[in-house]
Amino acid sequence: MKKIVECVPNFSEGRDKAKIKEITDAIQSVEGISLLDVDPGEATNRTVVTFVGQPEDVVEAAFRGIRKAAEVIDMRLHHGAHPRMGATDVCPLIPVSGVSLEECAALARQLAERVATELDIPTYCYEAAAFRPERKNLAVCREGEYEALPVKMGSEEKGPDFGNRPYDERAAQTGATTIGARDFLIAVNFNLNTTSTRRANAIAFDVREKGRPMREGGKVTGKPMKDENGNPIMIPGSLKGTKAIGWYIDEYGIAQVSMNITDIAQVPLHVAFDEVCRKADARGVRVTGTEIVGLVPKRTLIEAGKYFLHKQQRSSGIPDEEIIRIAVKSMGLDQLSPFDPAQKVIEYMIEDSSAKKLVDLTARGLAEETASESPAPGGGSISAYMGALGAALGTMVANLSAHKAAYDDRWEEFSDVAEKGQALMEELLHLVDEDTAAFNRIMAVFAMPKKTEGEKAARAQALEDATLYATRVPLRTMKKAFEVFDIVEAMASNGNPASVTDAGVGALAARAAVRGAALNVRINAAGLKDREAAEAILAEAASIEQQAALREEAILRIVNEKI
């Protein structure tokens, strides 16, 4: 899984477009960064920037943005409606895909230390990156805002985590920056079949973590109750990690529960949806749809789709696009306007659509591309594709079995097999293009210069590296294709008997994939100078090929017995 991190720095400049562009240009100067949104606010004099990329790239881009902001923004001249403490006021790192919150917290601390050391900007760490429990709260770090820095800096209790020193001219210019890590925040509105803001607010108070004030006599009209310190006594809502309020939207002519889900690990979108539905129903109101504001990670919709499929006792071992479609329909994400995952899912937003992939071709297109005079795709790619087809057949049998009335009590068993098969199919489809890329990498080496001794040495090393890579790719294909036997054997033995021959063909395809990839391992290993590495790979490939023959024979025996 590709590692993706989102960063949403807030810069204390919302009016000067030229300065804002200088900052965003600095961010985009890092290769691999996708700038998703730039949202300036004149009244707040603040710009919220959203960009994504791989972890190391995002950290570097954030550093460059902070550096540029310190150059073009002078906090001594700053005025705006939003709370602020520095030229870069806050900079959170947010895990999107393949990265944990803990990893983002470690990166945030490293970034904070680098900003303080190299740029001389005092930094606080907040949320998951906080060094002290109270500093998890951004408001605690930013207490007193920019104007309080002369008192806070140099203080052991109030001073920044990095770059703590007596207040000086540099701090006066840049202010302080708060850097941290938090989970993805989802902004969502739940549409109601009412125009009553009061009803919408009541539902919001039922679910939001803060809840509602406790009133005397338990009546809506009762006087709010307070504790001994004079603070309101609250009745907590049912969803932790959420903030919500009710409002009426003129544009749609309906009331909504507007919610921020600040902890999607604890409260996924589908859980919030079901709970709002439950509380609305208790008040005689129905949720008619859902409106996602901004972007969401792919996992949010995948988790939701699988949740609703499982409620229906349906297999979730189907393509991601179908799972997302179930999520969209189940929560009414397309009620107010069309919902296009390509414009709402972060991972889809940053895909390189210009990159030509073999797996995106039609079946005819792949066959014709293979038949052309180009040497790639060749046997390695086709071996991976045969393995993918074997996994697909096993997955098909699992899905058909899960949907068969006679197997209603076993749907979850088949769904689990289908999910594993689906994942295997995706990995093998990836290897279709990976094998061709490995071949192209070798071809690229031959274009390298070889006039000087240094150039010859570099070329020889590049060829060895590329050849080793081209040997390991088909070995990976062999390993993944071998895993297909587990799927098809389980379905041949326990799946719908009417589809047993499909499982058998899946076994034949898996064996062909293993044998075909083994041929590529052998021919590529022959070109390796490192014979010790080559022999180790060849031995592993031979073992897999031998075991594959036994697995195929056993599965075909099961199939033939059931025909």
What's the short version?
The protein has 563 residues and is of the alpha+beta class.
Show the helix and strand layout.
Blueprint: E1 4-7, E2 10-11, H1 17-28, E3 34-41, E4 46-53, H2 55-72, E5 88-97, H3 101-119, E6 123-127, H4 138-141, H5 149-152, H6 169-174, E7 177-181, E8 186-192, H7 197-207, E9 212-213, E10 234-235, E11 242-249, E12 254-261, H8 269-282, E13 287-293, H9 298-311, H10 320-331, H11 341-344, H12 346-349, H13 363-371, H14 379-402, H15 411-445, H16 453-494, H17 500-525, H18 531-562
Parallel strand pairs: 5-7, 6-7
Antiparallel strand pairs: 1-4, 1-5, 2-4, 2-5, 3-4, 8-12, 8-13, 9-10, 11-12
Helix pairs in contact: 1-2, 2-3, 7-8, 9-10, 14-15, 14-16, 14-17, 15-16, 16-17, 16-18, 17-18
Task: Describe the protein in words.
The chain has 563 residues and is of the alpha+beta class. It contains 18 helices and 13 strands. Strands 1, 2, 3, 4, 5, 6 and 7 form a 7-stranded mixed sheet that branches. A hairpin with a 4-residue loop joins strand 11 (242-249) and strand 12. Helix 1 (17-28) packs antiparallel against helix 2, helix 14 runs antiparallel to helix 15 and helix 17 (500-525) packs antiparallel against helix 18. The longest helix has 42 residues, at 453-494.
